[in-house]
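Can anyone check this?
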Amino acid sequence: MSHSARLAVRLTPRGGRDQIDGWAMDPAGRPFLKIRVSAPPVEGEANSALEKLLAKTLGLAKSSVKVASGTTARLKQVEVGGLSQADLDQRLAKPGAFDLS
Protein backbone atom coordinates (compact mmCIF):
# COMPACT_ATOMS: atom_id res chain seq x y z
CA MET A 1 0.00 0.00 0.00
CA SER A 2 1.50 3.30 -1.03
CA HIS A 3 1.21 6.37 1.15
CA SER A 4 0.63 9.95 0.15
CA ALA A 5 0.13 13.13 2.11
CA ARG A 6 -1.08 16.64 1.33
CA LEU A 7 0.52 19.94 2.21
CA ALA A 8 -0.83 23.49 1.87
CA VAL A 9 1.74 25.87 0.39
CA ARG A 10 1.78 29.60 -0.34
CA LEU A 11 4.23 30.04 -3.21
CA THR A 12 6.00 33.28 -4.05
CA PRO A 13 7.52 33.12 -7.54
CA ARG A 14 10.44 35.41 -8.44
CA GLY A 15 11.32 35.36 -4.74
CA GLY A 16 15.05 35.87 -5.33
CA ARG A 17 16.09 32.37 -4.29
CA ASP A 18 14.62 28.94 -3.66
CA GLN A 19 13.84 28.82 0.05
CA ILE A 20 11.28 27.59 2.56
CA ASP A 21 10.39 30.45 4.88
CA GLY A 22 8.46 28.44 7.48
CA TRP A 23 4.90 28.02 8.66
CA ALA A 24 2.06 30.56 8.79
CA MET A 25 -1.71 30.45 9.34
CA ASP A 26 -4.47 31.55 6.99
CA PRO A 27 -7.37 33.66 8.36
CA ALA A 28 -9.29 30.45 9.18
CA GLY A 29 -6.41 29.15 11.30
CA ARG A 30 -5.21 26.50 8.83
CA PRO A 31 -1.42 26.09 8.59
CA PHE A 32 0.46 26.51 5.33
CA LEU A 33 4.12 26.44 4.40
CA LYS A 34 5.58 29.66 2.95
CA ILE A 35 7.93 28.93 0.06
CA ARG A 36 9.68 31.22 -2.40
CA VAL A 37 11.35 30.26 -5.66
CA SER A 38 13.43 32.29 -8.09
CA ALA A 39 11.56 30.93 -11.12
CA PRO A 40 8.88 33.06 -12.77
CA PRO A 41 5.21 31.99 -12.78
CA VAL A 42 5.20 31.13 -16.50
CA GLU A 43 4.69 27.75 -18.17
CA GLY A 44 4.76 25.93 -14.86
CA GLU A 45 8.34 26.97 -14.02
CA ALA A 46 7.53 28.14 -10.49
CA ASN A 47 5.50 24.99 -9.74
CA SER A 48 8.33 22.81 -11.03
CA ALA A 49 10.83 24.67 -8.84
CA LEU A 50 8.47 24.21 -5.86
CA GLU A 51 8.25 20.46 -6.48
CA LYS A 52 12.03 20.17 -6.80
CA LEU A 53 12.69 22.16 -3.60
CA LEU A 54 10.19 20.17 -1.54
CA ALA A 55 11.53 16.86 -2.87
CA LYS A 56 15.09 17.87 -1.94
CA THR A 57 13.98 19.05 1.51
CA LEU A 58 12.12 15.80 2.18
CA GLY A 59 14.80 13.54 0.68
CA LEU A 60 12.45 12.20 -1.99
CA ALA A 61 12.55 11.85 -5.76
CA LYS A 62 11.15 14.87 -7.61
CA SER A 63 8.49 12.60 -9.11
CA SER A 64 7.11 12.03 -5.58
CA VAL A 65 6.05 15.67 -5.19
CA LYS A 66 3.28 17.17 -7.35
CA VAL A 67 1.12 20.29 -7.20
CA ALA A 68 -2.32 18.68 -6.87
CA SER A 69 -4.43 21.84 -7.01
CA GLY A 70 -3.97 25.57 -7.30
CA THR A 71 -1.50 25.42 -10.20
CA THR A 72 -2.19 29.06 -11.11
CA ALA A 73 -2.95 30.32 -7.58
CA ARG A 74 -0.59 31.40 -4.82
CA LEU A 75 -2.14 28.95 -2.39
CA LYS A 76 -1.60 25.38 -3.55
CA GLN A 77 -2.20 21.84 -2.37
CA VAL A 78 0.88 19.69 -2.87
CA GLU A 79 0.68 15.91 -2.84
CA VAL A 80 3.70 14.05 -1.48
CA GLY A 81 3.94 10.38 -2.40
CA GLY A 82 5.79 7.81 -0.34
CA LEU A 83 5.08 9.42 3.04
CA SER A 84 2.14 9.19 5.40
CA GLN A 85 0.69 12.46 6.69
CA ALA A 86 2.33 11.81 10.08
CA ASP A 87 5.75 11.20 8.45
CA LEU A 88 5.44 14.37 6.38
CA ASP A 89 4.44 16.45 9.41
CA GLN A 90 7.34 15.01 11.41
CA ARG A 91 9.93 15.73 8.70
CA LEU A 92 8.75 19.32 8.31
CA ALA A 93 8.61 19.96 12.07
CA LYS A 94 12.13 18.87 12.98
CA PRO A 95 14.76 21.52 13.69
CA GLY A 96 16.85 22.32 10.63
CA ALA A 97 14.29 20.78 8.24
CA PHE A 98 14.52 23.80 5.94
CA ASP A 99 18.29 24.22 6.05
CA LEU A 100 19.59 22.80 2.77
CA SER A 101 23.07 24.31 2.90
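Reply from J.R.: I decoded it. The mean pLDDT is 91.
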